[in-house]
Amino acid sequence: MQALQWAISYPERVRHALVIASAPKLSTQNIAFNDVARQAILTDPDFNEGHYRSHNTVPARGLRIARMMGHITYLAEDGLGKNSDAICVPTAINTAIALNLK
Questions:
Q1: CA 14 to CA 8: how far, in whole Å?
Q2: Does the residue 12 lie in any domain?
Q3: Is residue 16 a part of any domain in this protein?
Q4: 53 is in which domain, residue-wise?
Q5: Structural domain contains residue 75
Q6: SS3 of 6, please?
Q7: Torsion angle defined by CA atoms of residues 59, 61, 63 and 64, in that order, rounded to the nearest 10 degrees
Q8: What total number of domains does the chain contain?
Q9: The pTM of the whole model exceeds 0.90
């Protein structure tokens, strides 16, 4: 979306833009998913208010949760079922989430 906005706002500076997998605006639901993912990173104790490198840490747990949130938004609901029947079973989802958060 950023490249699309630059092309619209600064046509004299951006002569060409190849914008892939973007939309002119986000839905309210997508904005909410993005905020939850962002909060997952910001509230990770290892984030250290953005100074994680100087504390020799990485907010891995928050990044994992944010990545899982993002993955949900990348796929259509019917696309989730086509990948695996097991993914539709709540216990399989909970197990996968638990394993990814370790």
A1: 9
A2: no
A3: no
A4: 28-100
A5: yes
A6: helix
A7: 160
A8: 1
A9: no
CA distance 71 to 87: 13
Is 18 a member of any domain?
Answer: no
pLDDT truncated to tens, each residue of the chain (102 aa)? 788 899 999 999 999 999 887 887 888 988 999 999 999 999 999 999 999 999 999 999 999 999 988 888 877 776 666 555 544 555 666 666 555 555
Query: What's the CA angle centered on 19, arms 14 and 25, to 5 degrees?
Result: 100
Integer Cα distance of 34 and 16 in angstroms: 28
Planar angle of CA 37, 40, 42, nearest 5 degrees: 110
CA gap 38, 53 in Å, rounded: 18
Q: What is the distance between the alpha carbons of residues 90 and 72, in angstroms, rounded to a whole number? A: 14
